[in-house]
Amino acid sequence: MTQRILGSVVAAALLTTSAFADDTLMQRFEKMEKEMAALKAELNAIKTEKAQSAASTPTVEKSGAKIETASADEPKDLAKTVEDLQDEISEINKKTNGNNLKFGVDFRTSIDNLNYKMADGSTEKNNAVLSNRLWLNMSYAATKNLSFVGQLAYNKIFGQRSLSPDNTHNTDGFDWVSGESAYDDTLRVRSAYFFYTDDELAGLDIPWTFSIGRRPSTEGHLINFRDDMKASSPLAHTINVEFDGASAKFGTEELTGLSGSYFKLCAGRGMSNAEPRFNPAPYATSKDATNTIDMGGIIVVPYDDKQYSTGFQYSYANNLIDIKDSGFNTNNVPATSTGYDPTMEAVGGLHTATAFAMVNGIGDGWSEFLDDSIIFVSGAMSKTDPYGAKTMLGSTESKTGYSYWIGTQFPSLISDEGRWGVEFNHGSQYWRPITYGEDTLIGSKIAARGDAYEVYFTEPLVNDILTFQLRYTYINYDYSGSNGFFGSTSGTPMAIGDVPAPMQSSIVDKAQDIRAYIRYKF
Description:
There is one protein chain. The protein starts with a helix and ends with a strand. 16% of the residues lie in helices and 44% in strands. It has seven helices and 20 strands. By secondary structure, the protein is of the alpha+beta class. The protein has a 16-stranded antiparallel β-barrel with strand order 3-4-5-6-7-10-11-12-13-14-15-16-17-18-19-20.
């Protein structure tokens, strides 16, 4: 037995001396934890064996004392080794603050069946658009208060390197959807920011956080259900684009007495109007017709007890843009004298506001099915702010649009862990959110000026690591321009029945997307 103990100690010593030479502190930490667990298990086995044999071990009396034939100190060397390893792990834990660099993979292969009916009655379609989307996730907590989070994204159509036509090169500078749309074969930074959190603010019982960088601002609240994601902070009814900026969140539960209450301040920049690197004055303000686009907003969640929740969001963005010339003159007839000019210009600002209410678990013990079901309703508005003589959505006057969104998600009818969902969206004539990053190949259903219907189910194939989803999205447009920009060139709402004949072949009346995917997350 002594030889077995010494053999274990020697093996542990050889492992720690030979392997630790080239390893990082965290690798050493993990290896020692495994070794210590093995040694502890062996020590416990020896102690159990010792206890079981003690009853049957003969003893002899000598000078009034009982002497066992097997020494009680036999496992001491092993116990000392375990103690030494524990001390070294504790020391490494202090040096690394007990944190680790973590990586994750989210890989999805999709096939989409797309169908469009144009305003002139013609159809456009693609029976099988195959695409791969890869997200590489990383995070590191340097201290208990400060951490870094990042994500690299690759999103590409099978067998095609780029989907950027020559006549849209002026839009290549915008990165609102660079990680959201199947675009090309470039690996891009989808998010990268540091995150600070604390339990107190200036001595008050107000937990707070602060972050700055390329913030996650897609897959926000409500849209995250069908996307099978943990919600990012924006309310997706009005904001769903990638953005660079900062945010600060303040918990108010102790102050208000309302469960889960908080408010969050957000600010970001959607475009910097700067000259290229090799211009005579690199990065100076450009003389183009565009200007720097900034956005600010506030999110307020008055109540969230995990079953009942509600939230509000307001934002304002300035210097929003549209292309200068669509190639059609004022009579909507192709005009060769002006031609197509995709150059961008600033046209005005935009106010958006939204509010939602959600029930996560319908009733109180009515049934297991309802206990695990979700229902939500959301309302939103947008209001344009044209600059001077510029026009937005076809008018020099401010226009207000409205939208409502209702949905439900409930347990699968064929498996224990799957989720099914049904959603409906409606948008008015002048409805204009900023949702270009929504994950639908036919365009944002949330932005639809008309009605959008969606049904989906998500089923696990291997635990929650490998999943399958089938989704059907149908949009019936009442007005054009739902996926355009903010001015009058691409964003003017025209009733589908009133679209002039020369433009009808380029205006979508109805669109549908049938998507199936397999997704690996780890």
